[in-house]
Design goal:
The structure is a single chain. Helices cover 10% and strands 41% of the residues. It is mainly beta. A six-stranded antiparallel sheet has the order 1-2-4-5-6-3. The chain has two helices and six strands. The protein is globular, with a radius of gyration of 14 Å.
Length: 120
């Protein structure tokens, strides 16, 4: 199971972004539990796979992720995970992801490169 988007409660973050009506954006509400830089990186990881057109969960592979954490959420703080496509270059698919507080404060921001496996 994936720690970020796995389906088993208590075994990961269980973050599954979905389309936002009328926008080229995927988003989900997430309540921060245990908080650390590593948890925030995980929270904004898999959302990018959904943004580049895959349903996530193994359709594309993360090649690179550069992130900036501006503030860690507090334990129990409700947040929004968002992801959007940034374009593509052959099998390289680019996405942006972010974590916002419920009030709209930007907590973390990332740029990702996903790789679509070769079709055989």
């Amino acid at each position: 199971e994936c720690f970020s988007c796995g389906d088993r409660p208590g075994d990961g973050l269980c973050i599954h972004v979905g389309p936002v009506a009328g926008r080229d954006l995927q988003a989900a509400v997430w309540t921060a539990g245990e908080v650390s830089s590593e948890i925030v990186w995980a929270a904004i990881d898999c959302a990018g796979a959904y943004a580049v057109g895959g349903p996530g969960r193994g359709e594309v592979l993360l090649g690179r992720m550069a992130a900036e954490i501006r503030r860690l959420p507090g334990e129990g703080e409700r947040c929004v995970v968002a992801a959007w496509p940034l374009g593509e270059d052959g099998r390289k698919l680019h996405a942006g992801t972010a974590l916002f507080s419920a009030e709209g404060e930007l907590l973390a921001l990332a740029r990702q490169t996903w790789i679509a496996p070769k079709q055989t």
